[in-house]
């Protein structure tokens, strides 16, 4: 099974047509006008990734192969996490307000389920392919940090705009950007065979001491419990505005972790979540 998945990821990387942000015009995903009347999963994917071919059947790749939308069967959450359909990626709705109560429900992990061939098609299915798209994006001033982010599908462009937004905040944002835990890293998620979004150049970690990670608490999967978050709300909301979701809103919390998932933000809006 794992060998077949790796082969699929490699093929996706060979047929991907990169979408580059040559003219970087940042998007505010909390106010971007959205079409109505279509399947919200289809709409969220189309608007998030304008170069992607999406219809009621699924995502069509450059060679004509299809990643089907599939069904959201409300099945066992561990099975859904391990091998989701495109629809199941959207099973849990991401709370756009700074609400850390929803995550207390077991397995409420909006955005944590990912169809790996889709991300390989978007950003590259091999380490070499992803590395070719990486750009260094930095913040300075009260604190200095740099991140390697993919330029495909506007991720690096949005990251630059987000960091500029953080720098403009009147709060003390500096502690979150000290001793940052990294960005690009071609690897699997700890304890699984699934690829981390760090592998695709769309994820980064801030100061690990301020966020916390569920595995460090030694609690069992499905019962991650509460955690003490010290990542400032204003910082989180700046990143969300620019398409990055925060692992602090997951039941299996990863409070230092952000990843570029504009479709998750857009789907939450389409499903009635009010922006802050």
Quick overview of this protein structure:
This protein has 276 residues and is α+β, with helices and mostly antiparallel strands.
Textual characterization of the structure:
This protein has 276 residues and is α+β, with helices and mostly antiparallel strands. The chain is 28% helix and 13% strand. The protein contains nine helices and nine strands. It has a four-stranded antiparallel beta sheet with strand order 6-7-9-8. A three-stranded antiparallel beta sheet has the order 1-2-3. A two-stranded antiparallel sheet has the order 4-5.
Give the topology.
Blueprint lengths: L1 H14 L24 H9 L4 E2 L3 E3 L5 E3 L8 H6 L33 H8 L3 H5 L2 E6 L5 E6 L4 H13 L12 E3 L20 E5 H4 L21 H9 L2 E3 L10 E4 L1 H9 L6
Antiparallel strand pairs: 1-2, 2-3, 4-5, 6-7, 7-9, 8-9
What features would you highlight for this structure?
276 residues, alpha+beta, 3-stranded antiparallel sheet, 13% strand, disordered N terminus
Radius of gyration from the alpha-carbon trace, in angstroms: 17 Å
Biggest sheet layout: 4 strands, antiparallel
Topology, number of strands:
9
| Number of helical segments with 4 or more residues | 9
Distance between the termini: 42 Å
Strand portion: 5-15%
The quaternary structure here is single chain
> What value does the average pLDDT take?
90
Category from helices, strands and their pairing = alpha+beta
The shape is globular
Low-confidence stretches: 1-22
Portion of residues within helices: 25-40%
| SSE run | HHEEEHHHEEHEEHHEEH
**Lateral strand order in the biggest sheet:** 6-7-9-8
């Amino acid at each position: 099974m794992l060998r077949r998945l790796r082969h699929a990821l490699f093929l996706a990387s060979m047929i991907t047509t990169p979408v580059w942000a040559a003219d970087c015009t940042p998007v505010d995903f909390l106010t971007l006008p959205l079409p109505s009347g279509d399947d919200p999963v289809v709409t969220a994917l189309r608007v998030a990734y304008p170069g992607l071919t999406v219809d009621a059947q699924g995502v069509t790749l450059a060679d004509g192969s299809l990643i089907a939308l599939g069904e959201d069967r409300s099945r066992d959450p561990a099975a859904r996490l391990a091998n989701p359909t495109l629809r199941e990626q959207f099973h849990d709705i991401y709370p756009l307000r700074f609400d850390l109560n929803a995550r207390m429900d077991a397995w409420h992990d909006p955005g944590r389920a990912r169809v790996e061939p889709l991300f390989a098609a978007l950003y590259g299915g091999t380490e070499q392919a992803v590395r070719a798209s990486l750009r260094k994006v930095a913040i300075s001033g009260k604190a200095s940090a740099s991140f390697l982010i993919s330029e495909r599908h506007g991720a690096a462009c949005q990251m630059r705009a987000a960091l500029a937004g953080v720098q403009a905040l009147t709060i003390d944002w500096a502690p979150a950007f000290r001793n940052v835990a990294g960005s690009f890293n071609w690897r699997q998620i700890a304890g699984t065979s699934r690829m981390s979004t760090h592998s695709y150049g769309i994820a980064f970690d801030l100061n690990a001491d301020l966020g916390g990670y569920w595995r460090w608490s030694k609690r069992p999967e499905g019962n991650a419990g509460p955690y003490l978050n010290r990542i400032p709300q204003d910082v989180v909301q700046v990143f969300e505005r620019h398409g990055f979701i925060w692992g602090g809103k997951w039941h299996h919390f990863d409070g230092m972790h952000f990843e570029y998932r504009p479709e998750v933000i857009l789907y939450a809006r389409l499903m009635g979540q009010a922006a802050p």
